[in-house]
Amino acid sequence: MNLRLKICVLVFLLLTIVSCNTEDTLTCLKTTGDEISETYDLESFDKIIVYERIQLIVKDAPEVSVRLETGENLLEDMEVFVEDGVLNVRNNGACNLFRDYDYSKVYVSAPNLTEIRNSSGFTVLSDGVIGWENLALISDDLIEEDFFHKDGDFRMTLDSESVLIQCNGLSNYFLDGSIENLDINLLEGDSRLPLEDLIVQNVIVNHTGTNDIIIAPLQSITGELRSTGNLILKNTPPVVEVDELFTGRVIFD
Asked: What pTM was estimated for this model as a whole?
């Protein structure tokens, strides 16, 4: 390679690297840029789907607000919209040669939500105690196989009447607070539910997974163990009616 060609290549590489710090750069080459906050005025919703590469933080509050924190150069790759009563949050910037994945966060406050689907790969967090009456926490791909990610965790403090946990992958649920009625559907996978710090009255369990549920129900627990995962009871309620249909066992601890 002659000297002139070498100089041209070096100049091209230098210009490419310098241009990485703008929002107009190809997604793969973008750096994050300065942190910015974008607030969205949206139509009403009572459900959320958060897709890959965005962390969701939810708060029980009288007024609805949706705020995205991301890098200035990444904002145009973000989609935040409501469709059929569902808040969808997407990060379309999949390629990241010059930045970290775990940068963007969305903060959602609402007086009531009924469903959160975590397809992000990150942990859904609660900011304070969540007092929504009926809530489903979902991490599965039953709607469309392999379309949704199913390895993002939930770490939340709840004060709810009825809660549904439904997953068929690797998501773990770290819940505390108080729930009257808890419905657990572990449809397959290796999800772990260390719920011993949760105050829960009544539990229905359908366990087809390979990991353990650890829980301390106060009034009743009913259901079925259909795989190798165990049900570890930290308290013995008056009603324990759980069928052991495979190698998973009810363990009184």
From this structure: 0.86
